[in-house]
Write a structure and sequence with these properties.
Distance between the termini: 34 Å
Structural class: mainly alpha
Number of helices: 13
Number of strands: 0
Largest sheet: none
């Protein structure tokens, strides 16, 4: 294992135990590239959120400068210039090896630009535009890492959908923490309908309404999780297993948030080790079915679903 690969693996193990467990199911080369891509995504998020490996979000005073540096480093890496930061060296390695288009990399940084600008989202469609930047395009790039061709748009859209589902789930889980850090992602029309002021989302007095909003986010994620399932049949079996396992674990987070109701933010919702193991086994069965029975059927259409690609 190279030094870049080892550093990236350490980042994923500390930054996302759920994704680390799923990535272990990939074959070796795919795992290494997925981890290097993840490490770059994690780094960009940390830079903008003033955190370390996804923990301890804090306001940053120089957000625009940090954002411009990410744009410059990303463009330089994509242009083949030698990076001085090992995170960008790892990203460059996987981006050039897997043919990741520059527009996808820059779309991800565009997502973080929305955070720097303090953007608010009036409707679900506007929120999904943000979800594309910070998660949907990551799913798309991960599909390229797993061998999906850049012109295989139907499969890339299913990968996009998984990222959208992930991010809607994350927003549901983190509504209160995000609001305490002046980040409000819930659509404004949803807040208005329940009488929750944008400036008071974190107030305990609105916790029952926030639970309703979280449930709506989880419900909004469901069609995207369902769509993503049909992309599994176009992946190698081990990759399909890893993705199905990750899908199951992240979807479980949303189910647990809904089950906890207005107590979901008393402590951070996490999936137990036993449930992760179950979802991994379930994912293996799903991957095998996708490689056999589902492979010969026609995938359902995505009528009315938001899409960037």
């Amino acid at each position: 294992m190279s030094a870049l690969e080892a550093q990236s693996r350490e980042a994923i193990q500390k930054g996302s135990k759920s994704f680390a467990a799923a990535a272990a199911l990939f074959k070796a080369e795919t795992r290494a590239d997925a981890e290097m891509l993840y490490a770059w995504c994690r780094h960009c998020d940390d830079v903008i959120d003033g955190q370390t490996l996804g923990h301890g979000m804090s306001p940053v005073a120089d957000g625009p400068a940090r954002l411009e540096a990410l744009y410059a480093q990303t463009r330089a890496a994509m242009a083949g210039e030698t990076p001085t930061d090992p995170v960008f060296a790892a990203f460059q390695t996987v981006a050039l090896r897997r043919g990741i288009p520059e527009r996808y990399a820059l779309d991800m940084v565009d997502g973080f630009a929305m955070d720097v600008a303090g953007r608010r989202y009036a409707t679900l469609d506007e929120l999904l535009d943000y979800c594309w930047g910070v998660a949907g395009v990551v799913g798309t790039m991960m599909a390229l890492v797993m061998g999906v061709k850049p012109d295989d748009l139907p499969t890339l859209r299913r990968a996009q959908d998984l990222g959208l589902g992930f991010q809607l789930t994350n927003i549901a889980r983190d509504i209160v923490e995000d609001a305490r850090n002046d980040r409000v992602y819930v659509p404004g029309d949803w807040l208005a309908a329940l009488g929750v002021p944008e400036t008071a989302v974190a107030d305990r007095a609105h916790r029952a309404a926030v639970a309703v909003l979280a449930q709506r986010l989880v419900e909004a994620a469901e069609p995207y999780y369902a769509s993503a399932r049909w992309g599994l049949r176009d992946l190698p079996v081990r990759s399909a297993w890893a993705i199905a396992a990750a899908r199951g674990v992240y979807r479980q987070i949303g189910l647990d948030v809904v089950k906890a109701g207005d107590k979901a933010w008393d402590e951070r919702v996490v999936v137990s080790g036993r449930m992760k193991a179950w979802r991994a086994l379930e994912g293996g069965a799903m991957a095998l079915r996708s490689a056999t029975l589902d492979r010969w059927g026609k995938a359902p259409a995505r009528p009315g679903m938001w899409s960037k690609i």
